[in-house]
Design goal:
alpha/beta, Neutral endopeptidase, domain 2, Collagenase (Catalytic Domain), 4-stranded mixed β-sheet, 3-stranded mixed β-sheet, 54% helix
């Protein structure tokens, strides 16, 4: 069977591909498919993730049961067993979280708040802001501590101010109240109201999501002294010490949204310590809820699963246990996953695919009529330094320093988080590890990292409908080929195009070329701003938020098609060229619950799947292959089609 044979039963032949490629390939499936009750969406991405989860469960259980288990295998087994031991969880109740609760109750002032947050974030909690370690965007041969806005419990700042989210705010308040009641906190309703009011104040300082994509505005290098001047009300020394770092860790910091930290100082100075205690109490309980008794688990899921994503049913406990193990010991599991489920033949074929995609980009760049020869040469230079990573890391992570104790679930969760915190903080001052992977081998996804100029395709995504060593090449190029093209395209999207081949923010464009690129990007923004999802006709796509991913899709599919022609010796029958586009649309076969669809329109930098599939309206190659004409649903006049790469 070819890949598309799997898709045919779900096609709707009453819908012409010239009118709606997504509907043609997926229409019947959309009408007849029921989303599994423990999922907020369904389609190839999610079904592959489910299959990988089943494989990982078998690996975990077999490693745990092995008589001569290695130390690593014992850790995997002990961690999983501690999660599955519901009798102990029930017996302990809230005892595992009481030390944190008592610490919150004992806070005296704002300095204590900073010290507590360092300790809390070290073991996996979240605080007033996010922090992470990454390569320096202007000096990619070193690591840098980064700070990003945070402090809120709803998905985005707009949830605190937009009238359309008023009902969600009411349900959030009820959720906070219930969480506090379960912990036997006095005046739960009043405390919950305090938390909502404080988060609303914090949200007022947040940048809008589209604005956070600006890689120039969000690069603000500060010394520790400058950081203290920016947010003097926060005790940075107490925070970093309790996080596990030193003054050297934040001697220089990249502050992503400086105005948020100015705003934060005002809120810290004005809000009473009792309000911060209320806010912290909720964060402690929410962080611990997945590892406490069923009433905590269910309360947490009821809001974040049912209300926000529309998912009716909590995932089975074993699935949640698998997620915990993958978060703590993911590469140890991944090593075994690759040995069992990723044949060497797939890696060899992928090497050929990537080579053809890179050559297709070279050909495309050489033919651009809007880019000068000078900028083209620099684009070639960047392309030459792309580093593909396929399947799995060359060197798997060492977990020998992670201590897992049988029967101590919350202790294990904290130990795993602290182990990862230490691993990240240790990067500061160390050489950049360009062999590190930022996804697990069993993950069904892919990424481009501008700071290392690498594209990564884990073994998990190298399956049908994206890739099959026995599929027709046109199917693979319309699947993983376009995905590879998409990820390479991120190196040349509105963000990635500002980085050079070394991973540094470095303006390698002439002024005229940059202006021409921006004209094309804005045309794509305007095109997507006009789109409304078929399930939510009163809502609109945010073209500015999604432009980077849309550029990735546009370039990825164009280049995937070109690479297929290269693989075919320069020519291919029209039916095979159509297959490239049909399999692209099959890859985006997705059905979402309305709650998730609404949430993603607000926060997701990807466009809804139907518009990802139907980006073909911009490709001359699609119009030629399907012989479209004026009046067809996907027809665009040639001068209205956006073509960048």
């Amino acid at each position: 069977m070819t890949t598309l044979d799997d898709a045919r039963a779900g096609m709707d032949h009453d819908i012409r591909p010239q009118d709606d490629l997504f509907g043609h390939v997926n229409g019947t499936w959309l009408e007849t498919t029921e989303i599994p009750s423990d999922r907020s969406s369904w389609g190839p991405f999610v079904s592959l993730a489910d299959a990988a989860e089943e494989h990982v469960r078998v690996i975990i259980e077999e490693l745990a049961a092995g008589e001569a288990a290695s130390a690593e295998a014992r850790k995997i087994g002990d961690l999983y067993a501690s999660f599955m031991d519901t009798a102990t969880v029930d017996e302990l109740g809230t005892r595992p979280v009481r030390p944190l609760i008592e610490a919150v109750d004992g806070l005296r002032d704002i300095r204590d708040l900073a010290a507590f947050l360092g300790r809390f974030e070290r073991v996996g909690g979240s605080g007033l802001f996010g922090s992470y370690v990454d390569t320096d965007a202007r000096k990619s041969d070193r690591y840098l501590f980064n700070l990003v806005q945070g402090g809120i419990g709803l998905p985005d700042e707009s949830y605190y101010r937009d009238e359309k989210f008023a009902e969600i705010r009411e349900k959030y308040l009820a959720y906070l109240t219930r969480l506090l009641e379960l912990a036997d906190r006095p005046d739960a309703g009043q405390t919950a109201q305090q938390v909502l009011e404080l988060e609303t104040r914090l949200a007022k300082g947040h940048w809008e999501r589209a604005e956070t994509r600006d890689v120039q505005k969000t690069y603000n290098l500060m010394t520790l002294e400058e950081l203290k001047q920016l947010a003097p009300a926060f005790d940075w020394d107490a925070y970093i010490t309790n996080l596990g770092g030193t003054s050297a860790t934040i001697a220089e910091t990249c502050v992503r949204q400086p105005s948020y930290f100015e705003h934060l100082t005002t809120v810290l100075e004005e809000a009473p310590v009792e309000a911060w205690q209320a806010w912290l109490m909720v964060r402690v309980l929410r962080s611990a809820a997945p590892y406490l008794t069923d009433d905590f688990v269910e309360t947490n899921f009821d809001f974040y699963g049912r209300t926000l994503s529309g998912t009716p049913e909590l995932r089975e406990r074993w699935k949640r246990g698998v997620s915990l193990v993958e978060g703590a010991l993911g590469e140890a599991v991944g090593k075994e996953y690759v040995a069992r489920h990723f044949p060497p033949r797939s890696k060899a074929l992928m090497d050929d695919l990537v080579a053809n995609l890179l050559e297709a980009y070279r050909q495309s760049i050489s033919r651009l009529d809007w880019m000068s020869e000078e900028t083209q040469q620099r684009a070639f230079d960047k392309l030459a330094t792309f580093r593909p990573k396929i399947g799995y890391p060359e060197r798997f992570r060492d977990y020998s320093g992670l201590q897992i104790a049988p029967g101590d679930l919350m202790g294990n969760v904290a130990a795993a988080a602290a182990f990862e915190t230490d691993r990240e903080l240790a990067k500061i001052g160390s050489p950049v590890d360009r062999d590190e992977w930022f996804m697990l081998p069993q993950t069904v996804n892919a990424y481009y990292n501008p700071g290392t100029n690498e594209i990564c395709f884990p073994a998990g995504i190298l399956q049908k409908p994206f890739f099959d060593p026995d599929a027709h090449p046109a199917e693979n190029y319309g699947g993983i080929g376009a995905v590879i093209g998409h990820e390479i395209g991120h190196g040349f999207d509105d963000q990635g195009a500002q980085y050079d081949g070394e991973g540094n923010l470095n303006d390698w464009w002439t002024a005229d070329d940059k202006a021409a690129f921006e004209v094309k990007s804005k045309a794509l923004v305007a095109q997507y701003d006009a789109f409304s999802p078929r399930a939510l006709p009163d809502e609109k796509v945010n073209g500015a938020l999604t432009v980077g991913e849309n550029i990735g899709d546009l370039g990825g599919l164009t280049i995937g098609h070109t690479a297929y022609l290269i693989a075919s010796g320069g020519e291919a029958p029209v039916e095979d060229r159509r297959t490239v586009f049909l399999n692209w649309a099959y890859c985006w076969r997705t059905k979402r619950r309305l709650e998730q669809e609404r949430q993603y329109l607000t926060i997701d930098p990807h466009s809804p799947p139907e518009f990802r599939a139907n980006i073909v309206r911009n490709l001359d190659e699609f119009h030629e292959a399907f012989e479209t004409a004026p009046g067809d649903g996907l027809w665009l006049e040639p001068d209205e089609r956006v073509r960048i790469w």
